[in-house]
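BUG: 3D viewer hangs when loading the predicted structure for this chain

Environment: internal workstation, default settings.
Expected: structure renders.
Actual: progress bar stalls at 90%.

Input used:
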Amino acid sequence: MKEHGFYSRKWLNREGHYGTAFILAKVGKKGNSGIDATVTLSDCYRQIDLSFDVCDREDLENSRFKLDNIIETLTLFRDEFERQAKGLKLP
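Structure tokens produced before the viewer hung:
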């Protein structure tokens, strides 16, 4: 039996801007034997599911490693995006 610990779904675009892109994140325990965790990213035409499932210590360490790398990369991406945006001359 799965215990739901976390569930979040957020739209990624502002209302009226490009359709139905979203992020969905779920984390739940599989009793005392593991974790069922998934992040889904979707835009108008494509979807990816990132699995962070845990059944043993190796899975746990790998899922932490994967999550830390994603967070680090997206943080650096945002920083560079903002740096690039400062020089724009937009209407």
